[in-house]
Amino acid sequence: MTNELFLTLPTDEIVWITVATLVVLFAIQRFGTDKIGYLFAPIILLWLLLIGGVGIYNTIKFDTRVLRAFNIKYVIDYFRRNKKDGWISLSGILLCFTGTEALFSDLGYFSIRSIQLSFCFGLVPSVLLAYIGQAAYLREHPEHIANTFYRSTPNVMFWPTFILAVAASIIGSQAMISCAFATISHLQTLDCFPRVKILHTSRQYSGQLYIPEVNFLLCVGACLVTIGFKTTVIIGEAHAICVVLVMIITTLLLTIVMLLVWKVSIWYVALFFVVFMSSESIYLSAVLYQFVHGEYVPVAISVVLTIVMIVWHYVHVKRYEFELEHTVPRDKVKKLLERHDIQRVPGVGLFYTDLVQGIPPVFPHLIEKIPSIHSVLIFVSIKHLPIPSVDKSERFIFRHVDKEEYKVFQCVARYGYRDPLEEAKDFVDALTENLQYYIRDVNFYATGGEQIFRTTSYASSIAESFASYDKHSGHAVYAEEMLTPAESFSEHAKQFSGRSKHFKQFQVQNMNMEKMEKIQQEQQAILREMENGVVYILGESDMVARPHSSLLNKIIVNYVYSFLRKNCRNGEKMLSIPRSQVLKVGISYEI
């Protein structure tokens, strides 16, 4: 009786209850999930045990003969008997295992082994038992096919089942939302997505992300789909095409991995590809038959996102190649620094650039418009490495751009994909501290004489690291970035400290008071300029298609990319820089 009263709720009321639940779910994303994450595993475990137990109960009570469905003969008879209708029903059968893929959205947070064990010994048996029990129930009550799950649940277990079902669906939705945040974060690191604000909601656990723009768009999209489709039947059909496309893409990528990475025999690869791709293609054909019934929605969204990613990455690569081809030569930098009309402004200027090797063309443009530079000028390049984290002691790499007395440096700040960007003040403090170490080390290793400096100079080795960054222009991950910190910065330091044992006594003798005082004066000069104020210089480069380029290139660069750039976050917001300390330099590139 309880089941009947609840299931008679009007569709419109259910829709608006769902919308309210969605709004609340997306509203609490800003607080993170680490505080309530401890409840996720117990709830899901209870849910799987519950549906598995109800499935066993229904199978025993109504009809154990449904177990004969595991016999392949009945599957063949089904398609012989129903022909085209049987083929069309495959799209509905596909919905039986939609949702199981949500488990793999947590791949970035759990180990592969834990997910394999959970999938094989928890998720699959419970879901399979639940569907077997529902099939047994429908053998006696075929008229209840629209609401089989709740109608097949015993009355005494209805409300516990309903509460756990809502909680499990919220947890599944949370997993997909977290997966969306993590995916956008990785895409932005690879320069394949417009700049959005990424917040880390937990200081204790890595991977707890929140992206306000993405959260808002997901909320609006989910609510519109719920209001527009109203029933789970159409929403499920729309979800089916996502699942089958994920299966096909996974098969294709795994085939490539088996061939190129694992070096598996071509015959085993061919067998794997034929078996899986043939079955998945049959499911895809059945799903596409009902494409106009709502399955076009996720495909349309995917196409839009793919276009955004391709356009953003394409223009980013072209801009990087342009800057790399038009880097300012060292002799020109020297002439700029030696010009008599150049005024040295007190303070420190942090000039942000994507280039690691060389000075960007926007720098002489700045000097031409405003003939002045700060007493300390640092070209900062922030790079993300394909490793989880970079130790703070190994985060910064420095080198002098030219003569030391000009106090012009280049700096590479390296972050792992789990390392959050610091606030502006914390970033400057860390940079200043590491710059002091660099000044000390460079002068220390240079005290052994000119010959020693050439063979063991810390600065020379760091310069080699800089030079390797831009070997492969136009890519989001560069040559030096593929090295871990232990293979780049730390290895150089170990080499020098090892060599220093042989001539340490000689260096100590040559490290006279005058030299030590010089190092201290240079460090104090940097600190004084930091106290005078820090100005963040950002190059605002407008991308314009060349006059004689193709029509497609003009549309991509002048319209699509321009629209995306105008509607994404500015550089100072991404870096959490105070607006009062920002100096923007505008320049146009023809690509």
Automatic annotation (TrEMBL):
<feature type="transmembrane region" description="Helical">
    <location>
        <begin position="38"/>
        <end position="60"/>
    </location>
</feature>
<feature type="transmembrane region" description="Helical">
    <location>
        <begin position="157"/>
        <end position="188"/>
    </location>
</feature>
<keyword id="KW-0406">Ion transport</keyword>
<comment type="function">
    <text>Potassium transporter.</text>
</comment>
<feature type="transmembrane region" description="Helical">
    <location>
        <begin position="238"/>
        <end position="261"/>
    </location>
</feature>
<keyword id="KW-0633">Potassium transport</keyword>
<protein>
    <recommendedName>
        <fullName>Potassium transporter</fullName>
    </recommendedName>
</protein>
<feature type="domain" description="K+ potassium transporter C-terminal">
    <location>
        <begin position="346"/>
        <end position="591"/>
    </location>
</feature>
<keyword id="KW-0630">Potassium</keyword>
<dbReference type="GO" id="GO:0015079">
    <property type="term" value="F:potassium ion transmembrane transporter activity"/>
</dbReference>
<keyword id="KW-0813">Transport</keyword>
<feature type="domain" description="K+ potassium transporter integral membrane">
    <location>
        <begin position="13"/>
        <end position="333"/>
    </location>
</feature>
<dbReference type="Pfam" id="PF22776">
    <property type="entry name" value="K_trans_C"/>
</dbReference>
<feature type="transmembrane region" description="Helical">
    <location>
        <begin position="209"/>
        <end position="232"/>
    </location>
</feature>
<dbReference type="InterPro" id="IPR053951">
    <property type="entry name" value="K_trans_N"/>
</dbReference>
<keyword id="KW-1133">Transmembrane helix</keyword>
<keyword id="KW-0812">Transmembrane</keyword>
<feature type="transmembrane region" description="Helical">
    <location>
        <begin position="296"/>
        <end position="315"/>
    </location>
</feature>
<dbReference type="GO" id="GO:0016020">
    <property type="term" value="C:membrane"/>
</dbReference>
<feature type="transmembrane region" description="Helical">
    <location>
        <begin position="14"/>
        <end position="31"/>
    </location>
</feature>
<feature type="transmembrane region" description="Helical">
    <location>
        <begin position="117"/>
        <end position="137"/>
    </location>
</feature>
<comment type="similarity">
    <text>Belongs to the HAK/KUP transporter (TC 2.A.72.3) family.</text>
</comment>
<keyword id="KW-0472">Membrane</keyword>
<dbReference type="InterPro" id="IPR003855">
    <property type="entry name" value="K+_transporter"/>
</dbReference>
<dbReference type="Pfam" id="PF02705">
    <property type="entry name" value="K_trans"/>
</dbReference>
<feature type="transmembrane region" description="Helical">
    <location>
        <begin position="268"/>
        <end position="290"/>
    </location>
</feature>
<feature type="transmembrane region" description="Helical">
    <location>
        <begin position="87"/>
        <end position="105"/>
    </location>
</feature>
<dbReference type="InterPro" id="IPR053952">
    <property type="entry name" value="K_trans_C"/>
</dbReference>
